[in-house]
Amino acid sequence: MNTSKVWYVTGASQGLGLTLVKKLLANGYRVAATSRNAQLLKEAVGLRDTGRFLPLSADLNNPDCIDESIRQTIDAFGQIDVVVNNAGYGMAGTIEEIAEQDIKKIFDVNVLATINVTRRILPVMRLQRFGYIINIGSVAGFVGAPGWAAYAATKAAVAAFSEVLALDVKEFGIRVTVVEPSGFRTGFLTQNSLAYTESRIDGYQAVKDTQARYLAGNGKQPGDPGRAAEILIQLSESEQPPLHLYLGKDAYSRASEKLKVMTQEIEDWRELTISVDFEI
After folding, report:
1. Which of 8, 132, 151, 246 is catalytic?
2. Which pLDDT score is estimated for 193?
3. In a domain, 264, yes or no
4. Where does residue 52 rank: exposed (0-12), middle (13-18), buried (19+ CB within 10 A)?
5. Which keywords describe this protein according to UniProt (predicted)?
6. What is the gyration radius of the CA atoms in the chain, in angstroms?
7. Secondary structure class of 28 (helix, strand, coil)
8. Which of 30, 44, 154, 171 is the most exposed place for a label (fewest CB within 10 A)?
9. Residue 119 sits in which domain range?
10. The domain spanning residue 99 has which CATH number?
11. Contacts of 61 (CB under 8 A, 6+ apart)
12. What stretches in the chain show pLDDT beneath 50?
């Protein structure tokens, strides 16, 4: 395990981000971590070793803040080897009942922040001729659940961004993985991590049933964030990490089933699909 690597982790004050930062520091890595409040982050991590831990206050939708956090990281550690774009939150509710400004906000945090951090760290990694970018997506970005359309759209965007980014930066020795978990016990369904709009419209029964089931299962999710953090560290040591990594039995089942359905649907409609081309 190469503990000389420097990690830059966003959204690190709670959930998977906090678990990962603690695990990295326990294993001797150097870590720069961002949060909206660096003091709260420092208290949550509990480590006072300024030689290995750099807590940073950063508004990830402000390019100047991102640039400053990267500058401070380079000044402190001299390099950035692994980036984990973890900042984000959930949103549940019907599309017609969620306010437009709330939809814009979740895209700002879940998608644009990931893109902004990546585009500003890429010059550092290109000069190094190496680097590893881990974007935290969700199985919902591939197989969404009723009532999670806005959130699923953001995570689908993160997955598509990661796929093309990997093609763009391969020649520089930079690798990319989008991690797509199912339910983890990270407080994701709590007030600080979920914007929830209860439906008051008659109908939408699938949405209401799904939300009730999800909220009732809060704190009982099967995913272990500690194990997930260990897997992210393991990925960073791999010479050929996967482009997509689903985490959790539920993620595996949902993704596998959708692939089967999609394959069958593509074949069922093959003749109509190819009929649109000019005859050659």
Report:
1. 151
2. 65
3. no
4. middle
5. Oxidoreductase
6. 20
7. coil
8. 171
9. 6-249
10. 3.40.50.720
11. 108, 109, 112, 113, 116
12. none
